[in-house]
Fold this sequence. Notes:
By secondary structure, the protein is an alpha+beta fold. The chain has 8 helices and 7 strands.
Amino acid sequence: MDYFSDEFLAYLELKQDMLFHKIPAEVIWSYLEKSLAIGKTFASQLNSKDIFELYAESDIKIKEEKHDGVFYKVQMRAQFESDRKGNNLVYLYEKSITQLAEMNKLSLKEMKRIILAHEYFHYLEEKGNKHVYDQFMPIESIKILGFSQKAHIRRTSEIAANAFAKHLLSLKHLPSFYDYQYLLRTNQLSMKDIEEEYDQFNTLERTQTNS
Length: 211
């Protein structure tokens, strides 16, 4: 059984959004499918599939940091930044990327290509002035005494970025697959945890298919 289909990995990504519990169950599947489709479409529209060539053409600077990528207990592999002057920069946290590459038995260059592809999608979002999450109806996040505040599900952009990287680089899985392999092999996650999540996902899939 392939526990790591695109849809399941996208579901795990969506669950990390702080507003996931606010998303109506009947639209979750459409969030997954639409986000994955957006990423795939973006990749199909590029003439070049060489990520380093794309960075050069777009004048995006790559800065390799020796920092381990841990900020406020959150592990980061890379970070895209764009300033008001139109300068674009991607930080690569080499120690973190090296650990990820080793656990997945990939070369450091290959893992960097995957991560850079993910970040390139975020560059395309910024360039187009329209993020993926803007293409979904905002969710009511707070309702107090008749006052309602709405917010976007930002993890949809991460799902699309992963789909973009997968199709651009012809990967077997979405890039988040490598993160889960890392967590499994460092005993930060167990297959029982994955199986429990998969059962919930299966229930969701059956509900959406039969509706």
